[in-house]
Design goal:
Layout lengths: L7 H19 L3 H6 L1 E2 H5 L5 H4 L7 H18 L5 H22 L5 E2 L3 H17 L3 H20 L3 H7 L5 H24 L1
Antiparallel strand pairs: 1-2
Helix pairs in contact: 1-5, 1-6, 5-7, 6-7, 6-10, 7-8, 7-10, 8-10
Length: about 190
């Protein structure tokens, strides 16, 4: 029988992120104009966009897809999601995703959505599973690497792009996934030293 981490100490973090995304959606297009990742706006020192760009969405389908992804990750790794820890990892995954886009994907001018940060939370959660000696963590990490690698070679699904009314930012998935691994390694190294 599957046991889901319904306790508020494990579900509050994802609920806060979901609530922020839903609120931002109801203030579209204003929220997208002022919160989305926008390379030129960031160069103009609107630095909050490196985090907030991950909370706004292009349309309702985009929002629902990402909320479904957040729900799935909570079901997979929710027992690692103590509120403070989850929110810190989320913010750092947002920063890592946006920094990766800014420095290594200069052609990507505009980005919105949780998917990059979700890939980071996924890889971080898989690493946490591995640390807890759960073999499924390796399977999840390998599966994620295959998905991200496939997207880098073959691009994204045109059906998904049509659904969300935007090109899928596969580089955000790559940088998000790498961010989650880096965050885990930094946390692990810091804990070992302490």
């Amino acid at each position: 029988m599957i046991s889901l981490p319904f306790s508020l100490k494990y579900s509050a973090g994802p609920l806060i992120i979901a609530l922020c995304a839903v609120i931002a959606f109801f203030f579209e297009p204003l929220s997208g104009n002022y919160l989305a990742y926008d390379r030129y706006a960031i160069q103009g020192l609107e630095t909050w966009r490196v985090v907030t760009g991950n909370v706004v969405h292009t349309n309702g389908y985009h929002l629902l897809l990402n909320l479904a992804g957040l729900l799935l990750l909570w079901a997979l790794h929710g027992d690692h999601y103590r509120i403070g820890m989850f929110l810190k990892v989320f913010v750092w995954c947002c920063i890592g995703t946006s920094a990766g886009l800014y420095f290594f994907a200069p052609d990507l001018i505009w980005y919105a959505g949780l998917s990059g940060a979700l890939h980071g939370i996924f890889s971080w959660g898989a690493c946490m599973d591995i640390k807890e000696k759960m073999k499924s963590g390796w399977l999840l990490l390998i599966g994620l690497a295959i998905k991200v690698g496939y997207e880098q070679v073959d691009g994204s699904s045109q059906q998904v792009a049509n659904l969300i009314d935007a090109k899928v930012a596969v580089d955000a998935h790559l940088f998000g996934a790498l961010s989650g691994i880096i965050i885990f390694l930094l946390m692990y190294a810091t804990a070992k030293r302490g």
